[in-house]
Amino acid sequence: MRDFKYYTPTEVVFGKDSEEALPGLLGKYGAHKVLIHFGGGSAVRSGLIPGIEEKLASAGIPYVELGGVVPNPHLSLVHEGIELCKKEGVDFILAVGGGSVIDSSKGIAYGLAYDGDVWDFFDGKATPGGSVPVGVVLTIPASGSEMSDSCVLTNTERGQKRGCNSDFCRPRFAIMNPERTYSLPAFQTACGVTDIMMHTMERYFSSDVGMDITDAIAEGLVRTIRVDGEALLKDPHNYELRANIMWAGSLAHNGLTGCGAAADFGTHRLEHELSTMYNVTHGAGLAAMWCHWAKYVLDVNPARFARFAEKVMDVEPAGDARETALKGIAAMHDFYVRIGMPTSIPELIGRKATEEEMATMAERCSRGKTITVGNFKVLGYREMLEVYRLANV
Ligand code: NZQ
Ligand code: ZN
Fold it and tell me: Which of 27, 115, 210, 211 has fewest C-beta within 10 Å?
């Protein structure tokens, strides 16, 4: 087990009436003027935004609003938000939505505490030295951004989707009402389930050993979400299932399921290029890649995959570890099919990727062949291209 730091400062208020806590939390975390940041309209249509406006008005907390965050959020709106907040004297960003809205909020919050262009942090030109505080009212369990140290933005001008990690952007609070997720389309629910499982799997497939507690938590979490996620798609108004998945989304990506291990995150990095190239939904992109990545890296440690097969996928051991491992990967493939996720690039984008597109994605993922990704197996440009080709069947 590696040495590690575990830091999760986010105050979580979870449950049916959790939004009632909002004015108190804004006061507690020093908000004098708030930006309410939201997406394409679901939070307005559901009545969530009008309810929040009312609460802030009653509590005498001034606010301005900026909607229009798109999935795979754009740097351009972050720039707009920074300008608006400077002009209006905003000192607290309230994200009302999912990962895209939260990450756009984190981008604005970083930008307000920095004199240069916020993209510098995503380009590796600068490291964040602070951030304006962010709070979250979560509407979709998926990204885990409500507790994570991560912010992922898309620079459409440069064709780049990049992440920036620092503890400064961990939200001060997260309000999570599972009832707010009843309105999610089945596809978004399934993408969320896939992403949540993947955040833990990316940490589980590590070259490190001896993380018994972390492994037990990870296996329990992924197994539970697999079972509950499939049940939820048949029973979308089941409060307990919604609640368990919502809480798992936060735990899967706040660091808990990776304590003591160096994470892989290779599938995520490969997926971010799919999102950039084809503007696909993150969770669907992950499902399209994972089984191909898994078969490609399996021989590094078949026993790890065999353990995953037995403890997470409920697969009976068969033959040697490699055989059991392959059964586990096949079981994950079948799970994706049952929850309506794509399992290849053609299923994801409706056609085969061209050789040129795959080379571009590998080039971008390796930042012009200068970096590698992954830990369980390190992938350079050539290996990235190979995994894209395997997924392009
Ligand atoms: O825009 P609106 O109208 O709100 O619609 C959204 C959007 O179309 C809709 N939605 C959200 N809540 C809803 C709802 N529709 C009905 N009812 C509700 N209650 O769902 C769609 C997807 O929303 P989005 O925020 O894009 O989803 P998600 O939470 O999956 O976030 C995806 C983004 O997060 C990044 C991804 O790369 C992607 O850009 N990630 C961020 C991470 C982080 N910061 O820690 C980690 C992840 O690995 C991921 O990379
Ligand atoms: Zn993810």
Answer: 115
